[in-house]
Design goal:
single chain; alpha/beta; five-stranded antiparallel beta sheet; 28 helices; 21 strands; about 15% strand
């Protein structure tokens, strides 16, 4: 079997292998991934024909609602991750999809033009993309293979799906149970080899968030063999109870400890795994919550760990020691996590524009004045909203965030207002509490409120006026006590003029406007980089990974269209590319589009910081990418055996530039 499956550069070769299989019944022995070939065989055994349009799944709106309710925890933790991934692929003709363990698509977000095209092949919420119904596809195959799968163009079993390129990875819980799949799909003509890596990264984030939520009442040990690995995507997580028993380990922890997938944990007490005393480690964590500790395994190896102990864990321990019933204690609201303890004070980084927004918010928090946060995508609107909540008198109440742009229009009513049992076909018998009621006694944060449908705007206005919410199918309204925070990247005043946003609602939510400056206009980029690398805004550790001056020059010259969210992703990638003996981020560790973009478009920054151009290697040799002729590109590809990344580095151009040149000229 070929170790380098052919992809976008050899579409015709894939078509030839496809004809070999479908016309002659011969299974190709090279050129296609083993997972694709196994899927083709499974589809053939099912009696599927490649000319089919797909077998109907017969799912209804009620079925989707039931599936979403059944997978509420997965949806809750995956929603933010999907938005983060989408920011990385925005305007690339792609979408991010979440499916449950059966292959039913629960949620999707993507470029509007591609979302419309994808709906023509039923690639949308409510459709099942299991293999038995849609043939070979990334979602269906990854659920069967239980491993990341990429399916490009004609590798799809059904002819009608050949327009797609799909990359998916399975989502597993800490016990190895299959929860669903995260998929990134797009136009096969815009294939990018890093997409599968993005999907895998997204799954890692979802699994980690679910683990942290499930074991919030336990001591969580984040560890890695290298100190700089703690706080990154490669760290492992252990959950330990008050008696020192290791009750759970996530997938990464199992890999680091050499525990086979599917095998029972069997680690027993903390002392069975570590030579360090459990009480000593917990005591130090209590004195210095951000401390990075060196722990010695019984095998003799050393790992580095940071311990997170929640308030609930401390209370449970005290109750257990006093002989009380710890189980009877009320669990704290999930929003009181380490992430949500950020306050307006801790957000200050020295930038004048940000400080103005923080000062304005500080003056009205707790005064029953709604706050409207405006700023570009990725600029930290939800973080500011959490800081406002945690800095006011409702800090001990729930913080409920709702992304109005991410919820399908046909579901937003039941999501916000809830419903009573039997309100519609497929609804839960006991009904469901809406997000507004969940925020009772705390804060309701409506993100991207500018994208809320007009019909829902009218209902929301009534809630804000009467402070009551009426669930779908209910006869009587329910009183709610909420503080309101909203955010949008749109200009609501312009949407009001265009008739896309109610004027009366605009004045109701716009008590105070807090404008977040985009990253390219901020003067505190160095401080933001340092905080992101330290891994904590509240207990920063001494710097363990430095940023080379030439690397910082590139970061300062880049325009950051994805703002802080994009910067965080770039730094995560850079840390992942560091070798064991490296402790400094160099330009070679940065994504090529950032290096190339910094050279093409230096930006002015405040506080007299001069923009620094970061030319690519080609420009440094006196050539611009457009001046490199086709023969030079072909020679580079031949020299590096078709390795596009290596050829792009040799030529000193971004990999995307090389893709575009190949698509246009070859």
């Amino acid at each position: 079997m070929s170790q380098t499956p052919i992809r976008a550069e050899h579409t015709s070769a894939i078509e030839a292998l496809r004809r070999q299989f479908f016309d002659n019944g011969q299974l190709p022995d090279a050129g296609l991934p083993a997972s694709v070939l196994r899927s083709w065989q499974r589809c053939q055994r099912l009696g599927m024909e490649n000319t089919e349009r797909g077998r109907p799944s017969n799912t209804t709106r009620g079925d989707l609602m039931v599936a979403r309710e059944r997978n509420a925890a997965l949806l809750n933790h995956a929603g933010g991750v999907m938005e983060h991934l989408y920011e990385q692929i925005r305007a690339s003709g792609s979408m991010v999809l979440l499916a449950d363990a059966s292959g039913l698509i629960l949620h999707g977000i993507g470029d509007p033009a591609f979302v419309d095209r994808a709906s023509r092949v039923a690639l949308q919420p409510g459709a099942s993309w299991s293999e038995c119904q849609r043939g070979t596809n990334a979602i269906g195959a990854t659920l069967i293979e239980r491993a990341p799968v990429e399916v490009f163009g004609a590798e799809h079993f059904l002819d009608c799906n050949g327009v797609l390129t799909c990359s998916a990875a399975p989502i597993l819980d800490c016990r190895g149970e299959l929860l669903g799949a995260l998929d990134i799909s797009g136009d096969h003509r815009q294939y990018q080899p890093h997409t599968l890596g993005l999907a895998r990264m997204g799954v890692r984030l979802v699994e980690r968030r679910m683990f942290e939520s499930e074991y919030a009442r336990h001591a969580l040990f984040a560890f890695h063999p290298r100190p700089e690995g703690v706080g990154g995507l490669q760290e492992g997580l252990l959950a330990v109870d008050a008696d020192g028993e290791i009750v759970a380990a996530d997938r990464q922890a199992r890999a680091l400890l050499g525990i086979e997938a599917g095998r029972s944990l069997g680690l027993g007490s903390f002392g069975n795994l570590f030579r360090n005393g459990f009480g000593t480690v917990i005591s130090r964590a209590g004195r210095d919550p951000g401390a990075l500790m060196a722990l010695e395994l019984r095998s003799g190896a050393t790992v580095y760990a940071r311990v997170r102990v929640s308030l609930a864990w401390h209370v449970g321990l005290q109750a257990a020691q006093a002989g009380g019933g710890a189980r009877a204690l009320r669990a704290p609201d999930p929003s009181r996590s380490a992430r949500s303890r950020v306050t307006l004070e801790t957000l200050a980084t020295g930038d004048a524009g940000l400080q103005l927004a923080l000062d304005r918010c500080a003056k009205v928090v707790g005064r029953n004045i709604p706050i409207l946060i405006q700023g570009e995508s990725g600029s930290g609107k939800e973080l500011l909203a959490r800081a406002c909540h945690n800095s006011g008198p409702r800090a001990d109440g729930p913080f409920v965030a709702v992304n109005c742009a991410a919820i399908p229009e046909n579901l937003i009513e039941s999501e916000l207002f809830g419903y009573v049992g039997g309100a519609f076909t497929g609804a839960r018998k006991e009904g469901a509490i809406g997000r507004i009621q969940q925020a009772h006694g705390g804060t309701l944060f409506l993100d991207e409120i500018g994208d809320m449908p007009l019909a829902m705007q009218a209902r929301l206005l009534r809630v804000l006026q009467e402070r009551c919410v009426q669930p779908v199918g209910a006869a009587e309204p329910v009183a709610v006590d909420i503080a309101l925070l909203c955010a949008t990247h749109r200009m609501l005043s312009e949407r009001v003029k265009a008739g896309q946003f109610r004027e009366d609602l605009y004045y109701r939510v716009n008590g105070l406007t807090a404008q977040l400056p985009p990253l390219r206009e901020r003067s505190d980029l160095r401080e933001i980089v340092r905080r992101l690398l330290d891994g904590s805004r509240h207990h920063p550790e001494p710097a363990r990974v430095d940023v080379a001056p030439e690397t910082m020059a590139i970061l300062e010259a880049y325009a950051w269209p994805g703002n802080i969210r994009q910067l965080q992703n770039v730094l995560e990638v850079a840390l992942a590319l560091l070798d064991e003996d490296e402790d400094c981020i160099l330009p070679a560790h940065l994504p090529e589009d950032v290096v190339h973009g910094a050279g093409d478009a230096p930006v002015e920054r405040p506080a007299s910081r001069a923009p620094v151009a970061a030319p690519t290697a080609a420009l440094a040799r006196g050539r611009r990418p457009k001046d490199i002729d086709d023969a030079t590109i072909r020679a580079a590809l031949e020299r590096f055996d078709g390795n596009l990344s290596a050829a792009a580095r040799h030529l000193g151009v971004a990999r995307n530039t090389l893709y575009r040149r190949m698509g246009c000229d070859f």
